[in-house]
Each structure stands twice: as C-alpha cells, then as structure tokens.
Amino acid sequence: MTPHRSLLLSAPLLLLACAAQAERADRLQPMVVESDGQQAATVDLARKITVVSGHVLITQGTLKVQADRVEVREVAAGRYTALATGQAGEPARYRQKRDRPDEVLEAQAERIEIDGQAERTRFSGTAQLRILRNGVVSDEASAAVIVYDQKTDTLVFEGGERSAARPESGRARLVFTPRQEAASAPAGAGK
C-alpha cells in the first residue's frame, strides 16, 4: 500500500477522535485501524466514502470501537460521520475512558453512528450503555436508542416501539447505583 493510500484510509477515520471527546487527550493520539477481512478496506475517492470490514478494531488512545463493518463519509470539507455495525448476534462495541478519574463508558448496539462535527454518538438497535467506576459497573441503561452528546456530557434514552411478542420492548431502563461515599454517610449527615 502506498503512503498516499494509507493516508487516505486513515484520515477520514480521524473523526472518531472528535466524536469521542470523553478523554480529551485521545484526540492527540495516533489512530490504528485493523481488520482481518479478505477485502479489508475500500476507498471511494469520488464519493468520499471509506469502508473497512471484517472484525474491525479501531483504537486511538483510550477509545476502542469493535465492529464487523465501519463506513466513514466525508460530508463536508473536514467533517466526517461514521457508521459502525455489528453482525447477526454480535453487536458493535464502544469503550472509552472519560475525563473523570477511573471512569469508563462502555456501550454496544447493532449500529453506532458517530458524528465528529456535532460530537455526538448514537447507539441504536438493542442499545446498552454502562459507566464503570474503578472497574465496577456504576450505572447502566438499555433502550432502543441512546444518544451521547460529548459537548454537553448528556445522555438521551429512547424506548422505541412496543411489540406484542415482546411486551418489555419499547421501554428504556436505567439503573443508578449509589456512590460509595453516599452509601457510607451516616443518616441525617446532611441536616
């Protein structure tokens, strides 16, 4: 592969650095894209689309995205979007350390849509999200759609449509675990 082609393959994927701003230092790290597919990468220069397939692993600093297929599009000069998809029975996965000490955000979904310009990531299709503190699941959620806005550090959960076959579908479920400091504080300590 020529150096020019290598640059073409990696440059569009830099959007992940902007989109996953949870660990700000990650944006300054080199990005590594690996795939084991027979035709691992295709670059369409005219349409400005890069497709990487076959057990794709993207790492950049603390950011890790695993998917069966990743499609990156340049939507305007210097602006990119990415779509990471899993395969049947194996969702796409996302993991990144946050700027808070010992805190990691993990998510998985059938589709992970990353908008580097808006700094927003959308997890859809049986989406699950976990926040780990010191390696232990602290908070978790599941929903049809979860949107993570890195600029405002907010999460939005959408329940989706309910089906007769699965009455539990259509609901967003959030579980919040008390912080260790709050759990060990004596009753009435704040009065």
UniProtKB/TrEMBL annotation:
- Give every Organic solvent tolerance-like N-terminal domain span: 41-153
Family annotation (PROSITE patterns): PROKAR_LIPOPROTEIN
Organism superkingdom: Bacteria
Instruction: Please provide the record's keywords in A-Z order.
Output: Periplasm, Signal, Transport
For this UniProt entry, which residues form the secretion signal?
A: 1-22
The record's listing under Gene3D superfamilies reads: Lipopolysaccharide (LPS) transport protein A like domain
Please give the function described in this protein's UniProt entry: Involved in the assembly of lipopolysaccharide (LPS). Required for the translocation of LPS from the inner membrane to the outer membrane.
Q: Which protein, by its recorded name, is this? A: Lipopolysaccharide export system protein LptA
